[in-house]
Write a structure and sequence with these properties.
The complex is a heterodimer. Chain A is α/β, with parallel strands linked by helices. In chain A, about 35% of the residues lie in helices and about 30% in strands. Chain A has 9 helices and 16 strands. In chain A, the strands form 4 sheets. Chain A has a 6-stranded mixed β-sheet, with helices on both faces. Chain A has a 5-stranded antiparallel β-sheet with strand order 5-6-2-1-7. A 3-stranded antiparallel β-sheet of chain A has the order 4-3-8, with no helix packed on it. By secondary structure, chain B is α/β, with parallel strands linked by helices. Helices cover about 35% and strands about 15% of the residues of chain B. In chain B, the strands form 4 sheets. In chain B, strands 3-2-1-4-15 form a 5-stranded parallel β-sheet, with helices on both faces. Chain B has a 5-stranded parallel β-sheet with strand order 6-13-7-8-9. In chain B, strands 10-11-12 form a 3-stranded antiparallel β-sheet, with no helix packed on it. Chain B is globular, with a radius of gyration of 23 Å. The model of chain B has no long low-confidence stretch (mean pLDDT about 90). The chains are: A alpha/beta, B alpha/beta. At the A-B interface, helix 1, helix 2, strand 8, strand 14 and helix 8 of A face strand 5, helix 14 and helix 17 of B. Bound molecules: flavin-adenine dinucleotide (2 copies), iron/sulfur cluster and FE2/S2 (inorganic) cluster. Chain B: GO terms for molecular function: glutamate synthase (NADPH) activity; iron-sulfur cluster binding. Chain B: This is NADPH-dependent glutamate synthase.
């Protein structure tokens, strides 16, 4: 059991948890993730430690209320509560090398995964520029990033009345693509790294590949165990089937079969919607506290 | 002398219609009276071939005799029978349910020559279940525990599957301080994430695990050895280590379309349903998506489990196997149950390609039709060759159940442990790996095996560990 030492909303729909997990704090490296099962009837969801303190034995996670499980965590968990299971760290650490100039991009909550990696790369002597592509209310870690890297850029826009997910996504992509194009031309990065939804990663990659800049992406296929046991997270990389949880999560963007990844990420959309509606209905009836 | 009863006393089973409504256990097991009738059929052979047929050599006539001897006092009968079984096997409620008895103890049973072999599996299960219901195992445990002499040596067990659990139990009974490190949130290995509840209810496993805790075994779940803690760290803090990590990675054929939506590895499919209870979605958060037509590829226990699970989720199910009927590797009971539950079988079909729709979801599977030759391979199975004819079967869900290999994570994070090219760990006759003090057993050293073989390894490794630790203590 893992006690929540602190919980706070750090941006719209984004909640930060500071959690007591000494054995994970001791081991975690930038680029790794954990698998969290918060409730007895909960799902196992992969999340990324953003900061950690090896001595004090805690990690922080930032959870975006995306579907039922994450919304439920953000609604129901309180400071002092205990999370049932956190397993990790999982996945391979990000390669710690001198690449030169790096453009590290995070779309929406993807920036939380960029943060520890970008920070470590900067400390290693790289020149890191971070770019956060995000709707305004969801801007997060701004100050932290400004302190950690050479330059932090936020490409944001206000949310207008009636903007649904498709409109928001379109706006993210259009603005993101334009900004990345500009940055590639002006800054001439040696490496581009990106975390975000698969569709967003693909859209940015489409711009990057025109310039032929090397690009790494942390992939987020649906996972169950996170230890290489189930095969849910399989992705095709350079024509070969890989398991993102043990072979990744980081891969060469040029090798990824994007269509397949996007299709696989959306497989449960209708069921997820049903789960969410069911949960919201229960909330409305006061069924959960 | 009583007349020989040639037929076995059948065990009651749940009605088929009722089975398909949920995940309740199908076989209901013997009552004391029925168990006694079956026990009466045993010839008490000496030497007893059934003992040789059992991979861990349970004294089968011995425990059967105890049941019969004390028939006036069921509690006494079961307690003494349980004692005999525990000498070789601490998890009889599990083996009694999942062992392929027809290939093991029951195969050479002398009664099989004149009629049907003794129903050894169901008798074993009866003893375990009755003991649990009546608190007899608890009594026995309370008698054992005070006699345990605590030792100072600490042993780490990696993986809480049957191999690891058995090794832990044996060492704990000898007084060693045992800690199990398990990657998942629940201990049990394949028993909890793979084998469905209609064959092995979760509370049966939980009760068996409670016994371990009472013996003083510490259980750390959410611990991935290699990531959360390294093998080297374990070696610093423990006097010996046992690796029982199983064969956790699904084999997936490299065929076109393998990553289409709707194609599950059996591991994922069963884990979603068993461990995460996707059948109760949305009450449980983990979804599973199953269409109307399911094809399961393979014909082992895993394939039967996936097929019967899919039936319970409401689909029509076809098992497609590249060999013939006689080469099915699943337990006979499961094949029978699958047929009763409406699963159909297609033989001599080998998948060639998975065909998807415009949304990237599987809609059909293209198969090569195979045929068998008279010639046999090293495993005694008839060789199969393609006929050149193909066929296409429609499906909106496909479950691949063609086997597993050892976990890659292990290979990546414990490179010092010698293994073959498939990651199967190499051990000597004492089950010790190339690293002194590190032992291994179960699927991790066998590729893929059975519950009882994994448990047998666990026991054997426990014995070796004991010898190793005693020798070490004497040398210092
Ligand atoms: C390596 C990795 C690191 C991640 N780090 C973070 C993080 O730090 N913060 C954060 O907010 N989110 C992170 N995510 C995403 C997070 O796991 C999903 O948002 C979450 O699982 C959604 O669950 P849900 O039930 O709320 O939503 P659902 O309604 O179930 O799903 C919404 C969408 O989330 C994705 N998703 C659903 N279940 C899973 C799953 N089990 N595994 C992966 N994706 C899933 C799918 O694309 C799905 O369409 C990470 C994902 C991965 C793979
Ligand atoms: C669906 C299915 C049905 C089956 N049916 C039968 C049957 O009817 N009869 C039968 O005899 N056999 C059956 N088998 C085979 C049998 O289950 C296995 O042979 C047996 O479970 C092997 O036991 P094990 O202890 O070696 O490994 P497992 O049961 O695989 O357990 C290994 C454990 O180690 C954990 N682990 C792995 N890596 C790590 C790590 N790095 N750190 C910590 N923990 C780790 C895993 O999470 C797992 O819990 C079946 C198998 C399957 C998949
Ligand atoms: S072989 Fe059969 S009849 Fe003989 S002792 Fe064993 S179980 Fe009894
Ligand atoms: S999440 Fe199961 S294999 Fe990667």
């Amino acid at each position: 059991m893992y006690e929540i030492l602190e919980k706070k909303e750090i941006a719209a729909k984004n909640v930060m948890y500071k959690i007591h997990a000494p054995h994970i704090a001791k081991k975690v490296q930038p680029g790794q993730f954990v698998v969290v099962r918060a409730f007895e009837n909960g799902e196992r969801v992969p999340l990324t430690p953003v900061t950690w303190n090896r001595k004090e034995g805690w990690i922080t996670l930032v959870v975006f209320s995306r579907g039922k499980t994450t919304l439920r965590m953000n609604m129901e968990l309180k400071e002092g509560d205990k999370i049932l299971n956190i397993a990790g760290p999982l996945g391979n650490p990000a390669p710690m090398k001198r690449f030169g100039k790096i453009l590290a991009i995070g779309m929406i909550t993807g920036i939380v995964e960029v943060y520890p990696i970008a920070k470590a790369w900067q400390e290693l002597g790289n020149e890191v520029i971070t770019l956060h592509i995000v709707p305004e209310p969801m801007i997060l870690l701004r100050e932290e990033l400004e302190n950690a890297v050479s330059r932090h850029i936020v490409e944001s826009f206000p949310l207008k009345e009636g903007m649904g997910m498709p409109e928001i996504f379109k706006e993210l992509v259009t603005r993101g693509q334009a900004k990345v194009k500009e940055l590639i031309e002006v800054e001439k990065p040696d490496l581009i790294f990106m975390v975000g939804p698969a569709g967003g990663q693909k859209a940015i990659f489409d711009v990057v590949k025109e310039y032929g800049v090397p690009m790494e992406v942390d992939l987020h296929p649906i996972m169950v165990d996170g230890t290489g046991m189930c095969g849910a997270c399989r992705v095709t990389i350079g024509g070969e089937v890989k398991f993102a949880c043990v072979d990744g999560p980081s891969f060469d963007a040029y090798e990824v079969n994007w269509e397949e990844l996007i299709a696989r990420s959306g497989f449960y959309t209708d069921l997820e919607k049903r789960a969410m509606e069911d949960y919201l209905a229960k909330l409305a009836q006061g069924g959960v506290q | 002398m009583m007349a020989i009863i040639k037929e076995r006393i059948p065990t009651p089973e749940r009605l088929i219609e009722e089975r398909l409504q949920g995940f309740m256990e199908v076989n209901l097991g013997y009552t004391f009276e029925l168990a006694l009738q079956e026990a009466q059929r045993c010839l008490q052979c000496n030497p007893a071939p059934c003992i040789q047929g059992c991979p861990v050599h349970i004294d089968i006539p011995g425990f059967i005799k105890k049941l019969r001897e004390n028939k006036e006092d069921p509690k006494k009968a079961v307690k003494e029978a349980l004692e005999v079984i525990w000498a070789c096997n601490t998890l009889p409620a599990i083996t009694g349910r999942v062992c392929p008895q027809e290939d093991q103890c029951e195969a050479p049973c002398v009664m099989g020559k004149v009629g049907e072999p003794i129903n050894i599996g169901k008798l074993e299960r009866f003893v375990a279940d009755y003991a649990r219901e009546q608190g007899i195992d608890e009594e026995l445990l309370q008698e054992i525990i005070p006699k345990i002499e605590k030792k100072k040596e600490k042993v780490a067990i990696i993986g809480a599957g049957p191999a690891g659990l058995t090794c832990a139990a044996e060492l704990a009974k000898d007084g060693y301080q045992v800690t199990i490190f398990e990657a998942l949130h629940k201990p049990g290995g394949v028993l909890v994430y793979g084998i469905p509840e209609f064959r092995l209810p979760n509370d049966t496993i939980e009760k068996e695990l409670e016994k371990l805790k009472k013996l003083g075994v510490e259980m750390k779940t959410d611990y991935i050895v290699g990531r959360t803690v390294t093998l080297d760290e374990l070696l610093e803090n423990y006097d010996a280590v046992f690796i029982g990590t199983g064969a956790g990675t699904p084999k997936l054929p490299s065929l076109p379309g393998i990553n289409l939506n709707g194609i599950y590895s059996a591991n994922e499919f069963l884990t979603r349903v068993n461990l995460m209870k996707a059948y109760a979605f949305p009450e449980y958060d983990t979804p599973i998506k199953i269409g109307k037509k399911v094809i399961v590829i393979g014909a082992g226990n895993t394939a039967m489990d996936a097929a019967r699970t899919a039936r319970r989720l409401g689909a029509e199910v076809v098992i497609a196997y590249r060999r013939g009927k006689e080469d099915i590797t699943a337990r006979i009971e499961e094949v029978e149950h699958a047929k009763e539950e409406g699963v159909t079988f297609e033989f001599f079909l080998s998948p060639m390609e998975f065909i998807g729709d415009e949304n990237g979801r599987v809609k059909a599977v293209k198969f090569m039709k195979m045929k068998a030759l008279e010639e046999r391979d090293s495993k005694g199975k008839r060789k199969i060759v393609p006929t050149g004819d193909t066929t296409v079967l429609e499906a909106d869900t496909v479950v691949i159940a063609i086997g597993k290999t050892t976990s890659k994570l292990l290979r990546m994070t414990m490179a010092k442990i010698e293994a073959d090219e498939y990651g199967v760990i190499k051990v000597d006759e004492k089950l010790m790996t190339n690293i002194p003090g590190v032992f291994a057993g179960g699927d991790a050293i066998r590729g893929e095996a059975t519950v009882i073989l994994a448990m047998g390894d666990g026991r054997k490794a426990a014995k070796s560990i004991k010898e190793y630790l005693e020798k070490k203590a004497n040398n210092t």
